Amino acid sequence: MIIVDHVHKSYGAFKAVSDLSFSVPAGSVCGFLGPNGAGKTTTIRMLAGAIQPNAGRLVLAGKDVRTDSRSSRGQLGYLPESNPLPSELTVREYLKFRCELWGVERPKRRAAIDRVVDRCGLAEVRNKLLGSLSRGFRQRAGLAAALVASPAVVILDEPGTGLDPTTAMSFRTLVRSLRGEHTVLFSSHNLAEVEATCDHLVLIARGKLVADGSAIDLRRIGAVGVRFEIESTHCDPVALWQIVGVLGVQTQSMQDGWTRISVEIEPNGESIGIPTALGESLHSAGGIIRRFERVNPALEEIFQRLVRERGGDVSIERIEGPSQ
Fold first, then answer.
1. Are residues 142 and 268 in the same domain?
2. DSSP collapsed to 3 states, 147-193
3. Could you list the residue range(s) of the whole structural domain that residue 78 is in?
4. Is the pTM of this model over 0.85?
5. Are 205 and 243 in a shared domain?
6. Which mean pLDDT values do the consecutive 10-residue runs of the chain (324 residues) have?
7. Same domain, yes or no: 128 and 43
8. In terms of domains, do 150 and 230 share one?
9. Which phi and psi (to 5°) does residue 306 adopt?
């Protein structure tokens, strides 16, 4: 597992990470999220042992990163965002080199390489130069290198950057397959990618923890009320606002002449009949309803609300929702 326990890191007067604590259960895939400047890169570098915290404890698979750095690094496979690969080596030559760096015993190297080549779908390019590979195969080669010594913990820093939709979907499937065998920390700005890949999420802002849990947990704690989307031939927003328990009303004209209505109601609104009151209000105004659906707020919206309410006034422009 991964433990980040009351960690602080400052650069002069700037606090990059401030009293940050979270843990990643063993064998899970955890999405590590946050707006620009949240402290994700600093935290990852501390976990990798590249920089030291000013205070706090970092643990990888039972090994303390500060007091037992050699052992903790031996537990970690890391795929950085830039993924620097030597273009003059073939995939197999590079994996052999990584085995040597990791200290994999010579008699076990061939089996270790064959295992990750097969797992990462590299069989058809195993003898090709890394410099000749597509972005997708380069990412797979980088992941294979991170896995070749069977580390307990794997950190992936923006692994989907630059991948086309089909390749990104295939790579997400590969990452999900690591669940149970490795503990994975998956840093990304793409919420659709994270939600499709991870079973646990950690959101930070300004170097502090904002939320920690499953996507369902974060939707629950970040949602103000319950949302319904309605399509009707007529809408009187003022009348809908006057219904007790309605928290918000938004309308949008559709190309076919109908109106899309988004209504947020208080959390217990369904039990006290607010949806029924909405339908009756639209009907009494002469509206015909063709759609009346309870919808979950987009994860992007939930994260924006959590960052705004718990993380202070920070930019969220690089947190991305699903591609349109």
1. no
2. HCCCCCEEEEECCCCCCCHHHHHHHHHHHHCCECCEEEEEECCEHHH
3. 2-216
4. no
5. no
6. 96 94 95 88 94 96 93 93 92 97 95 97 97 95 96 93 86 93 90 84 91 80 79 93 93 94 89 94 93 82 77 42 38
7. yes
8. no
9. -65, -45
